[in-house]
C-alpha cells in the first residue's frame, strides 16, 4: 500500500522512536496492524502540497471542511 503525504513531520517522526506525537504513534499502530494482520506492506511517500493532483485537492478540501466543525 502506497500512502502519499505532504507532511514531512509525519515522515520524519515515523523514523524516530523517541518523542513521537500521538498522531505518529497512531499511524505506527495502524501500519503495524495492516502489516502483521493483513500481510500488506505500507510505504509512506512524501509529495509536495503544491502538486496539482485532483484527489489531493479534494482531500485537502474535506480535511479543511471537517476540521472547521466543532
TrEMBL record:
Stored InterPro entries: RNaseH-like_sf, RNaseH_sf
Protein name: Uncharacterized protein
Highest taxon of the lineage: Eukaryota
MF GO annotations: nucleic acid binding
